[in-house]
Predict the structure.
Amino acid sequence: MSTFAPVDPGFEERVRESFSRLTLMRTIGARLVKVAPGEVDIDMPVRDDLTQQHGYVAAGIVTAIVDTACGYAAMSLMPAGANVLTVEYKVNFMSPARGERLLAHGRVIKPGRALTVCAGEVYALGDAAPKAVAAMLGTMVAVRDTAEAPEARA
Amino acid sequence: MSTFAPVDPGFEERVRESFSRLTLMRTIGARLVKVAPGEVDIDMPVRDDLTQQHGYVAAGIVTAIVDTACGYAAMSLMPAGANVLTVEYKVNFMSPARGERLLAHGRVIKPGRALTVCAGEVYALGDAAPKAVAAMLGTMVAVRDTAEAPEARA
Amino acid sequence: MSTFAPVDPGFEERVRESFSRLTLMRTIGARLVKVAPGEVDIDMPVRDDLTQQHGYVAAGIVTAIVDTACGYAAMSLMPAGANVLTVEYKVNFMSPARGERLLAHGRVIKPGRALTVCAGEVYALGDAAPKAVAAMLGTMVAVRDTAEAPEARA
Amino acid sequence: MSTFAPVDPGFEERVRESFSRLTLMRTIGARLVKVAPGEVDIDMPVRDDLTQQHGYVAAGIVTAIVDTACGYAAMSLMPAGANVLTVEYKVNFMSPARGERLLAHGRVIKPGRALTVCAGEVYALGDAAPKAVAAMLGTMVAVRDTAEAPEARA
């Protein structure tokens, strides 16, 4: 369904290698389940230590997985040697993040040399039909992937 | 500096009690450091297990603390028996979230019976002068605080 | 393609009647071209008096038509007697708004009794293939449609 | 109150010259009333032809003036020869845009070589005390100001 052609044929390996260095994703038990050109899915189990006051997964964690899915969707279309940072995002919360697992889907809606616009959704999965939990619209920026930390995001 | 008068004189206790049930805040080591009418500060130590690929605190965690600060800033102006949910937020990331600690400041810019508009910032603290890491603008909604989980956010 | 069932069978008439009172839409030459349950399209000619410094239609006007399309998409699913106000929106600009016409598409992604979440896009139409100009994600609120002006939006 | 030092001492003239080419601002009667380093104010009379269904100034027009104020606030800190485009913005609407005039205030919260983060507010002015109508948080990008139209925003 993707209509984007990757510039770097090694995009999947590059995305998977970068994801493996995202300590937070390991901490929360999130896994990369799909890496296609301009599209990435991330899955995580619902866990009690990540909840807010009603017992649902907290907004920040829901945001973390859809931000990561969108960031890697953007990175999948970038040339080798490029890394990605989040410039900004906006997220709407639509239903409680509960059930057995959450699935975040991120996709590129406008690639660019510097800036990439992405959209994403998070779904709650369990016994019932998948339910949309959150929707995101955000902006990613390509940065050169160096050993040194980028001094600034912009 | 706050210009808001709380409707419920027990607002601070109510906020602190609700915060104590936010499991995610405990998981990431975040603490409530200020609860004033329409203004809440949250502090957290920078920790390796919450980072992204460059070793900075991940965007979702930065978002979690400023969302929580904004949510409780909104709740501080609500009547007793009201709880708060995040309708949506938008966050801009401005500098790497590194240093020793992060401080999130949330404040109400427009209270309302149902909807409250909030703004917030996250600062990185350490040896150097505090540096703005992120800025947020978002919308909170008052919900009745019942034992049952709210079926829908809206 | 819409999966929403309208509560009010007279939704289209209600939307068209409300649109006819939007003076700004008349001022900029915008027309309602589609009203379906949860989906509305608005078309406007590109006009020199609505441009920014590069000669493209200004961001505020691009926003006005997609906000209106989203607002009426939300209203199409509300009961008779309900009107709609924009709580907030976020818009990404992706390409210059030029060509012969702009087409704004608004759709509901999560209806609700009080709050409705909408997404929208604006396309530039002309000799070339339609090009995505902007993407929106926003929140609408239902208000009772009275003769008096609502004192507050929330 | 501004803490920013302009790189280009001719920033005000540059901003005023660019503003004079914004046809939409002329169409809606908006005027630049303040140009300081990192801060710009725009004033416009409330006019019947710019309203929505309740007789208030439409959200898109409110957005247009605060977007323009923020864009020029960003441009005021850019070097000579740089122009500015809006990457994205998020706006919350807080009170009806009515009264005699609207005043939009835009300010830089994080300048950058490529990307600048801005915040802004719109106030309704008239007989009563100024009332906050809208709040914005957005991202601007510097582009080289050439005679040719930029093919892409990013």
